């Protein structure tokens, strides 16, 4: 087999078939534009699934990575390193956190959060306090533990038997949580905006109600901010929009701007349960990730960028509403900041993929969030010109689906 030329067909020939990627292969990116093997340009409204928070090849991130790569790549957690300690300091100074743990992905971050919650409960209340409450249509990762906690059976049912002690309440329904929570509950895990479940924001008072129920039952409240964190909603973390502070917060995706990194934020009291030997990761907290994420956080955690996200939200919503007015395909446009979902009406039920395929033909990258929601998660600093051009391409895609 020649290794000189690879094509999309190469994927079908040699890769495990758990993905069905688009028919073009991106080879270069700059800002919110991507070019494929043939040199065609695409506007990126997908952001690597809410990862490329500063777009592609941001000069400051390239410089941070390059400079660190000349110094130190990896030492394992037998040692610590300067970039990761500086990043931890940044996160602590900017959030409720007193302690930070780093890993490589959102799934790993949620795995750590859930393990910590059970360990903390065992340390303070005994082994019988081990139950976890999550929500239907939630998504927390692809490990066996996190896929079990996630509330979408299609992702877990093929891998039974699953870990026990997990219950699923109805999102935005405090009564359903009240019916499940008890003295055996060690944690409630929730997304402030359900991402993969359809870009569904928490109703006013819902997260505050969870905080009260957790306090009453001595359970920890975990916010999964893998998709909503690091400026995505217009605040550094989405909990800052609400009158509530979690006990543990998971973060990943946008934190590295495309370089793999994840982590959990928590308090000193809770963190004390993860003593040496209880949890770990070979690559987590490596110097390359620390350098890139530190520079990204320095840029994103500014009034200019965070206010810019709110402004761009309105540009997207106005543009999408205008498109919907002309083609009548969505029942609702919802979300927060630059995490936006367009809910398809009954005429186009289960056809979200048709819209992303049509967008691809118009040289636009967009996402789905389930079969009935088209999702947008672009760079936080995407230009107004790129938004306008991308929406024009999306309108052509909508027209092709609506008129087919």
TrEMBL record:
<comment type="similarity">
    <text>Belongs to the class-III pyridoxal-phosphate-dependent aminotransferase family. ArgD subfamily.</text>
</comment>
<keyword id="KW-0808">Transferase</keyword>
<keyword id="KW-0963">Cytoplasm</keyword>
<comment type="pathway">
    <text>Amino-acid biosynthesis; L-arginine biosynthesis; N(2)-acetyl-L-ornithine from L-glutamate: step 4/4.</text>
</comment>
<keyword id="KW-0055">Arginine biosynthesis</keyword>
<dbReference type="InterPro" id="IPR050103">
    <property type="entry name" value="Class-III_PLP-dep_AT"/>
</dbReference>
<feature type="modified residue" description="N6-(pyridoxal phosphate)lysine">
    <location>
        <position position="253"/>
    </location>
</feature>
<protein>
    <recommendedName>
        <fullName>Acetylornithine aminotransferase</fullName>
        <ecNumber>2.6.1.11</ecNumber>
    </recommendedName>
</protein>
<dbReference type="InterPro" id="IPR017652">
    <property type="entry name" value="Ac/SucOrn_transaminase_bac"/>
</dbReference>
<feature type="binding site">
    <location>
        <position position="142"/>
    </location>
    <ligand>
        <name>N(2)-acetyl-L-ornithine</name>
    </ligand>
</feature>
<feature type="binding site">
    <location>
        <position position="281"/>
    </location>
    <ligand>
        <name>N(2)-acetyl-L-ornithine</name>
    </ligand>
</feature>
<dbReference type="InterPro" id="IPR004636">
    <property type="entry name" value="AcOrn/SuccOrn_fam"/>
</dbReference>
<feature type="binding site">
    <location>
        <position position="282"/>
    </location>
    <ligand>
        <name>pyridoxal 5'-phosphate</name>
    </ligand>
</feature>
<feature type="binding site">
    <location>
        <begin position="106"/>
        <end position="107"/>
    </location>
    <ligand>
        <name>pyridoxal 5'-phosphate</name>
    </ligand>
</feature>
<dbReference type="InterPro" id="IPR015421">
    <property type="entry name" value="PyrdxlP-dep_Trfase_major"/>
</dbReference>
<keyword id="KW-0032">Aminotransferase</keyword>
<dbReference type="InterPro" id="IPR049704">
    <property type="entry name" value="Aminotrans_3_PPA_site"/>
</dbReference>
<keyword id="KW-0663">Pyridoxal phosphate</keyword>
<comment type="subunit">
    <text>Homodimer.</text>
</comment>
<dbReference type="InterPro" id="IPR015424">
    <property type="entry name" value="PyrdxlP-dep_Trfase"/>
</dbReference>
<feature type="binding site">
    <location>
        <position position="139"/>
    </location>
    <ligand>
        <name>pyridoxal 5'-phosphate</name>
    </ligand>
</feature>
<dbReference type="InterPro" id="IPR015422">
    <property type="entry name" value="PyrdxlP-dep_Trfase_small"/>
</dbReference>
<dbReference type="GO" id="GO:0008483">
    <property type="term" value="F:transaminase activity"/>
</dbReference>
<dbReference type="InterPro" id="IPR005814">
    <property type="entry name" value="Aminotrans_3"/>
</dbReference>
<dbReference type="Pfam" id="PF00202">
    <property type="entry name" value="Aminotran_3"/>
</dbReference>
<feature type="binding site">
    <location>
        <begin position="224"/>
        <end position="227"/>
    </location>
    <ligand>
        <name>pyridoxal 5'-phosphate</name>
    </ligand>
</feature>
<keyword id="KW-0028">Amino-acid biosynthesis</keyword>
């Amino acid at each position: 087999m020649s290794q000189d030329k690879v094509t999309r067909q190469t994927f079908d020939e040699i890769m495990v078939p758990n993905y069905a990627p688009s028919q073009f292969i991106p080879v270069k990116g700059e800002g919110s534009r991507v070019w494929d093997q043939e040199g065609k340009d695409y506007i990126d409204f997908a952001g690597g699934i809410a990862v490329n928070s500063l777009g592609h090849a941001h000069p400051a991130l390239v410089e941070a990575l390059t400079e660190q790569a000349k110094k130190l790549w990896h030492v394992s957690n037998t040692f610590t390193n300067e970039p990761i300690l500086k990043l931890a300091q940044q996160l602590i100074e900017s959030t409720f956190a007193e302690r930070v743990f780093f890993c490589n992905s959102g799934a790993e971050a949620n795995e750590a959060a859930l393990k910590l919650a059970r360990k903390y409960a065992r340390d303070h209340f005994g082994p019988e306090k081990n139950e976890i409450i999550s929500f239907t249509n939630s998504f927390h990762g692809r490990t066996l533990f996190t896929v079990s906690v996630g509330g979408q059976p299609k992702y877990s049912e093929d891998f039974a038997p699953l870990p026990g002690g997990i219950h699923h309440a109805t999102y935005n329904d405090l009564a359903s949580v009240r019916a499940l929570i008890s003295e055996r509950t060690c944690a409630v895990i929730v997304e402030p905006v359900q991402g993969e479940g359809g870009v569904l924001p928490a109703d006013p008072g819902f997260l505050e109600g969870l905080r009260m129920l957790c306090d009453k039952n001595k359970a920890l409240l975990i916010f999964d901010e893998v998709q909503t964190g690091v400026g995505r909603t217009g605040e550094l973390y989405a909990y800052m929009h609400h009158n509530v502070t979690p006990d543990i917060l998971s973060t990943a995706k946008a934190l590295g701007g495309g370089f793999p990194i994840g982590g959990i934020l928590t308090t000193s009291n809770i963190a004390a349960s993860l003593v040496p030997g209880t949890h770990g990761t070979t690559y987590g907290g490596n110097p390359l990730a620390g350098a890139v994420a530190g520079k990204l956080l320095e840029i994103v955690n500014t009034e200019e960028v965070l206010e810019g996200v709110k402004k761009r939200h309105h540009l997207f919503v106005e543009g999408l509403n205008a498109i919907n007015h002309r083609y009548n395909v969505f029942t609702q446009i919802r979300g927060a900041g630059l995490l936006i979902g367009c809910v398809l009406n009954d005429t186009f039920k289960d056809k979200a993929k048709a819209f992303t395929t049509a967008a691809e033909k118009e040289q636009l990258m967009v996402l789905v969030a389930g079969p009935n929601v088209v999702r947008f998660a672009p760079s936080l600093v995407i230009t107004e010109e790129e938004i306008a051009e991308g929406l024009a391409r999306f309108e052509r895609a909508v027209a092709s689906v609506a008129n087919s």
